[in-house]
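Researcher: Sequence recovery benchmark, item below. Answer with residues only.
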């Protein structure tokens, strides 16, 4: 029996988005269809976007965020972009066109009150039976965690930034 899972990668360590991308890498090998939606990141060119171009038949990549949410100064902009991104994701979830949907950094929509947790939980609950949904981001809410079948918390032990080593190609982007 196939059952679509709700999978969450959370925690303060590096590896949440890359865990989700690794899952996509594996699934593409089986000819599965993947849709990735990034909620927070800006339009920076990342390796995963370039890779997605090469696997177009199986992998869709949508960048919906307006950059990182640092403070509440630009909250208006983030609110609008976040709400729109969620509406877009909801349609993708109910479309029944994918085997896996990755909602990268979705947790922040709840954390910053951009979309109600209950609204997200209800869309997840009504998802197509076989669809796997992968959610990433720090501070996954209690409700999200309850609704999930698999939750892994990635704990920060060290990060190169602590030594002043900046983000590097192939590692961070
Ligand atoms: P990745 O995309 O590399 O898997 P992530 O999804 O776990 O990372 P995010 O919280 O989305 O991490 O943050 C993305 C960026 O922040 C990455 O460039 C990452 O290196 C950096 N980062 C993640 N965790 C830490 C940390 N504990 N300290 C400093 N920087 C971090
Ligand atoms: Mg991430």
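Model:
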């Amino acid at each position: 029996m196939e059952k679509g899972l709700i999978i969450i990668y959370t925690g303060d360590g590096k590896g949440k988005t890359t865990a989700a991308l690794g899952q996509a890498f594996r699934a593409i090998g089986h000819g599965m269809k993947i849709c990735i939606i990034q909620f927070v990141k800006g339009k920076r060119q990342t390796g995963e976007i370039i890779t997605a171009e090469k696997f177009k038949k199986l992998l869709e990549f949508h960048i919906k965020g307006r950059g990182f949410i640092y403070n509440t100064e630009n909250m208006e902009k983030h609110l609008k972009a976040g709400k729109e991104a969620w509406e877009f994701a909801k349609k993708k979830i109910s479309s029944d066109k994918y085997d896996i949907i990755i909602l990268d950094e979705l947790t922040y929509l709840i954390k910053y009150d951009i979309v109600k947790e209950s609204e997200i939980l209800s869309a997840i609950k009504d998802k197509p039976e076989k669809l796997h949904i992968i959610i990433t981001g720090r501070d996954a809410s209690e409700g999200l965690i309850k609704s999930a079948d698999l939750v892994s918390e990635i704990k920060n032990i060290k990060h190169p930034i602590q030594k002043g080593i900046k983000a590097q190609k192939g590692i961070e982007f």
